[in-house]
Amino acid sequence: MKRIAVYCGASKGNKSLHTDATVQLGTYLAEHNLELVYGGGGVGLMGLLANTVLDNGGKVHGVMPQELVDRGASLDRLTDLKVVDNMSTRKKTMLNDSDGCIALPGGPGTLEEIIEAFSWARLGDNDNPCVFYNVAGYYDSLRDMFDNMVQNGYLTQSDRSKLLFSDSLTEIFEFMENYIPPRIRQYSK
Ligand code: AMP
């Protein structure tokens, strides 16, 4: 693995455990020569993560729609910034340019992006492992929802096992290294 896409809040939240975990992830990426691919923003956990990677000598690739660049949302010290037409192209580009996806705590944007990536994995359109960095149990209720999908027959246990919720960076990167994409989804009438 060389490049990791990280989705996270464009806000900073109000929990120091979340900002601490963001700094830990950024430091881990830089120390392991893993390049960051992210939305290119300079604010919230996004900005904190990118600045941490750069401060520790790592590389950061931003991908941002023109509209957000025009609004001055991009971080000005990125290794490089790809400017794209819209959010859909941004999400595709982030997946194509990375080898794995991690969600730190965040809001609706974070959730939407990682869940789209996981949904596409089941369709055969994304080979990247998807992981929720479950800092301080932030994603516990979402993990329960995915288990509920299995119990109600909307997701197979086998596909459920392709999505990790973990608060351990060691476990997260082991999972990513050993990941085999799900079988392409079949539909029965
Ligand atoms: P949210 O979790 O709702 O704060 O949204 C964060 C996600 O949406 C990020 O992963 C970005 O891809 C995108 N996003 C939202 N706001 C911004 C911003 N100001 N700059 C860059 N990306 C943003």
Automatic annotation (TrEMBL):
It comes from the Bacteria. Keywords: Cytokinin biosynthesis, Hydrolase. GO terms for molecular function: hydrolase activity, hydrolyzing N-glycosyl compounds. The keyword Nucleotidyltransferase does not apply. One of its GO terms (biological process) is cytokinin biosynthetic process. The keyword Hydrolase applies. Its EC number is 3.2.2.n1. It holds the Pfam family Lysine_decarbox. GO terms for cellular component: cytosol. InterPro entries: LOG, LOG_fam. SUPFAM superfamilies: MCP/YpsA-like. Belongs to the LOG family. This is Cytokinin riboside 5'-monophosphate phosphoribohydrolase.
